[in-house]
Specification:
Blueprint lengths: L1 H26 L5 H6 L6 H12 L2 H14 L3 H31 L4 H8 L3 H33 L6 H18 L2 H30 L2 H11 L13 H17 L1 H9 L3 H31 L10 H9 L2 H39 L8 H24 L4 H13 L2 H9 L5 H19 L2 H8 L15 H19 L17
Helix pairs in contact: 1-9, 1-15, 3-9, 3-12, 3-13, 3-15, 4-13, 4-15, 5-11, 5-12, 5-13, 6-7, 7-8, 7-15, 7-16, 7-17, 8-15, 8-16, 9-13, 9-15, 10-13, 11-17, 12-15, 15-16, 18-19, 18-21, 19-21
Length: 502
């Protein structure tokens, strides 16, 4: 009982510190939408780098990735660490820099605002927001599921799953309702540094206990020699490329990441940040995923539905340190969730509430603020309930959301860079790829066919390539093809994104 109290006390103390930082930042936040959602577009290199870093470090990173390395080998580092570090850095500059330029000129806060203005279409703005919120839901649920599992693993079942998941949900609701982007960014910087430090200390502690990296790798070679060979098993070439591209493209369209493209203080900040990004990614992913792989060689036992990192730390580190690392993992989940709920509220209020109620673009009254807060509470509560009943691993849930967002990337890229893109082309690219992907990840077609006595089964892969990748290609073809054969509508503004490169 005393151990459990100590563990929960450490986790709780860290959460209170994070909340205090957010409250201080809130007191310095101006009461307008641009400051609340984008910190008045003033984020510097260190804060932008670490708020993006911490926002992406979720339950998927701390638990899903190491779990996969534990069961299938450390080649997951190639997917998340190396390939996504590079691919996302390139997209950050190619798309993020252009978004920053047009956002600064026109005052855009959301992706929907940017596309709606370019194509003179409020319905398009609402479609983009709706698609984004749909895919944001499973990723918020992923954080809650990870939080519940983390507390169960840390306390060895003394605290049930629903209490852990419910606790982080309540904390997220409280935190997001009092802190805007400035508070989130400052707290993310603290959390990112905290997580990075703890992972490396955990590696040093575990390896010193087993005789070093050489000994841990030798044990892995004895028990799982296939883990040290490239290719084969789960990690086919198509799987590695498909997953890496889907995750990198999906991350670029995440609302919380996409809005950070608008929040940079300058062009120099953006360039420095994307250049440092691959280094920071490798500094976290390599040790985290290697811990999962080494645990397989060390014979660590993981309970059904549990996570390898808490089990490994419970065996090789003191109780207080294991609790600190779990606090770091909780920080990862919080730093993802608070940003998701903040960006989700901006999509809800600016791209759905305003058009549906006929309010002007500049409206920012108390009712809109109330809608945003009620939306946060409702969104977080529904995702919490779903986390209690949703099967599937953290990797499966995360991959589904990544690929859903990834379908937006090419229509957005074409809209930013090709003036020949038309409203009809963007609609076709977004909706066509989304329908194709949804039919492959949800049993919609099978259910409808079953009602009329038919059996239909869509393939799970196309020549080894995932439906997510095929959907991205389909969206590209549809956007280009339909744009070529359709004329711009009268309300479209092909020169809206013409900006000075400086």
């Amino acid at each position: 009982m005393a151990e459990t109290t100590l563990q929960l006390g450490i986790v709780g103390a860290y959460m209170v510190v994070a909340l205090a930082v957010g409250v201080v930042a809130y007191r310095l936040t101006d009461r307008n939408a641009e400051d609340y959602y984008l910190a008045s577009r003033t984020l510097g290199t260190v804060v932008l780098l670490f708020t993006t870093f911490a926002t992406l470090l979720s339950a998927f990173t701390f638990f899903g990735g190491p779990n996969l390395a534990f069961s299938a080998g450390p080649e997951w580092i190639l997917v998340m660490g190396l390939m996504d570090g590079i691919i996302f850095a390139v997209l950050w500059y190619v798309l993020g820099y252009k978004q920053w330029l047009v956002g600064k000129r026109h005052g855009y806060v959301t992706l929907g605002e940017m596309l709606g203005d370019r194509f003179g279409s409020t319905p398009l703005r609402m479609v983009v927001a709706g698609v984004s919120l749909v895919w944001l839901f499973p990723y918020v649920m992923l954080q809650q599921k990870g939080a519940g599992q983390a507390i169960v693993g840390l306390t060895e079942g003394a605290v049930p799953f629903w209490v852990g998941a419910g606790g982080i949900t309540l904390f997220m609701i409280l935190y997001v309702t009092v802190s805007g982007m400035r508070g989130v960014a400052w707290t993310d910087t603290l959390q990112g540094l905290f997580m990075l430090s703890l992972v490396w200390v955990a590696v040093a502690w575990v390896l010193s206990s087993v005789g070093g990296a050489g000994e841990a790798t030798a044990l892995l070679a004895e028990t799982n020699p296939e883990f040290l060979a490239l290719g084969g098993g789960l990690y086919t070439q198509q799987y590695i490329v498909s997953t890496a591209v889907s995750i990198a493209f999906g991350v670029t369209m995440f609302p919380q990441i996409n809005q950070r493209f608008f929040a940079a203080g300058s062009k120099t900040v953006l360039k420095r940040t994307f250049a440092l990004w691959p280094v920071l990614v490798l500094l976290l992913f390599v040790p985290a995923f290697m811990l999962g792989a080494w645990a397989a060689g060390l014979g660590v036992e993981v309970a059904q539905g549990g996570n390898v990192i808490p089990a490994l730390l419970a065996e090789y580190t003191p109780t207080w340190f294991a609790a600190l690392v779990i606090a770091g993992a909780m920080a990862a989940m919080m730093s993802s969730s608070d940003s998701m709920l903040l960006s989700g509220s901006s999509y809800l209020t600016r791209d759905l509430y305003r058009p549906l109620t006929g309010r002007s673009t500049g409206a920012d009254d108390g009712r809109e603020t109330l809608v945003a807060r009620v939306g946060v509470i409702g969104f977080a509560t529904l995702s919490f309930v779903a986390s209690l009943y949703t099967p599937g691993t953290l990797v499966q849930i995360g991959d589904t959301a990544f690929s859903g967002f990834a379908q937006l990337t090419m229509p957005v890229a074409l809209a930013l860079y090709w003036r020949g893109t038309t409203r009809s082309g963007v609609y076709a690219g977004i909706l066509g790829s989304q329908v194709f992907y949804v039919l492959h990840v949800l049993p919609v077609l099978e259910t409808v066919a079953g009602l009329v006595g038919l059996t239909v089964a869509l393939p799970t892969a196309y020549l080894g390539w995932t439906p997510g990748i095929v959907g991205i290609l389909l969206g590209t073809v549809l956007t280009v093809g339909v744009s070529v054969v359709t004329a711009p509508a009268a309300a479209e503004n092909p020169t809206a994104y013409r900006v000075d490169a400086d």
